[in-house]
């Protein structure tokens, strides 16, 4: 059993764990002493079966083997290689046994020494073998990084969880030449692992395969977060064996998928007899792959959650829009009736308390009409489109348009003791200049924008304050600035300023009436006209709203 957190790669130099296997004790023990003198930890075996047993019981970096044993067949060498897949081999043999020793090259022999081999030459051969093996493994690791990087990039670009899980399993199987692979995710409610994607597994098995967290190999890895490489039954933790069901594969790897310190699932890979077992290099490569995969799974889950949240918001927005549309239409009819009869009655009433009461009714009805109009306009803005491009909009004289809107609000400004001015005054502008100073805009929509801006300015300016509506010519546009001496808009609330129903004051304590629709309607209309609407700061003023429209 290998826990990747404590694995150590064989080093090209330094202290090694070496297994010396030779049938002749008078050869094996001097070699062992020579290698110990070179700073290594050495164990002696006087037969191949004994060497395989010791390699199964402990981890060795290198073995010095008697090549003459190959004359009796290679089964014992195969068992040794199965017991220690990554152990480096140095084989010694006399000239007469060289053909048999050469047959061992299939087991990835690093070096063959001709006997009698001086002890100094043996020490040098051990160093060469380790250096060569270390270089080969490092080169293999670097080669593996390129496809690993490409796979990781593919993981990050895939935001469909189902496709991503299948891609992860296929990448893990391809990277290790495994026969089967599966990815299991933890069901947090049931505390069970369920197969979500697999390669080489029948669909009916995928549908039913589940494992409790803490039970079996996958459950143990999910609970502990410790990866396992298992190449024989002795590698299985004793407390897991009792919970295993079925037989054991020839070689298996189980790695946790961990995000922010929490295990979300595991990857299982297996090989059958006839395939080379998983190595530490496989496990190290898979550990990096599993780390990238876990992050990608977490990102894909977050993306799907965001999509669901967006879909919920979109549905809520549609419900809200439908409610606003119905409310606007339902308000308009009774308000129109109230206004009609109130106007008719007021015309026939003399001055006195009765007329004052009806005037109060009329003011409130008009306020209701404004609310209904704002709601209707807000709903209509979703479908409003210009029938033509901005360059083909009619030329609208800007000065008379601004003057007309300012005049509409003079009475309201006077009733609130607010000074409302247009600059430059219309009377100071020559008639030919008034007709030539034009913007590309639909007059009705442009006037509606200005009404919302001027209305806001008058509403939020305290008694004794001023509202100035300035027409400012620019190179290719006219800017209409509506400036007031009110409190302005706090910086932290400006980002929400043009959103529907936004109110700068708390809803329960606010002093000013309104539904917070005017500025959102004005901004949308400005966009439709190809213009711009923004808030800026100017010395001596609270809020300054600027509308820019293209010159005609």
Model description:
The chain is of the alpha/beta class. The protein folds into four domains: 17-144, Rossmann fold; 158-305, GAF domain (Beta-Lactamase, 2-Layer Sandwich); 308-381, Helix Hairpins; 390-550, 2-Layer Sandwich (Heat Shock Protein 90), CATH 3.30.565.10. Helices cover 47% and strands 19% of the residues. The protein has a six-stranded antiparallel β-sheet, with helices on both faces. The chain has a five-stranded parallel β-sheet with strand order 2-1-3-4-5, sandwiched between helices. A five-stranded mixed β-sheet has the order 13-15-16-18-17. Strand 17 and strand 18 (544-550) form a beta hairpin. The longest helix has 67 residues, at 280-346.
Quick tags:
disordered N terminus; 18 strands; six-stranded antiparallel β-sheet; 552 residues; Beta-Lactamase; alpha/beta; 47% helix; five-stranded parallel β-sheet; 16 helices
Topology:
Layout: E1 17-21, H1 25-37, E2 41-45, H2 48-57, E3 62-66, H3 75-83, E4 88-93, H4 98-102, E5 109-114, H5 119-157, H6 161-176, E6 180-187, E7 192-199, H7 203-208, E8 210-212, H8 216-224, E9 228-230, H9 238-241, E10 251-259, E11 262-271, H10 280-346, H11 353-381, E12 395-397, H12 398-408, H13 410-415, E13 419-423, H14 431-436, E14 438-440, H15 443-460, E15 466-473, E16 477-484, H16 518-528, E17 532-536, E18 544-550
Parallel strand pairs: 1-2, 1-3, 3-4, 4-5, 13-15
Antiparallel strand pairs: 6-7, 6-11, 7-8, 9-10, 10-11, 12-14, 15-16, 16-18, 17-18
Helix pairs in contact: 1-5, 2-3, 5-10, 6-10, 10-11, 11-16, 12-15, 15-16
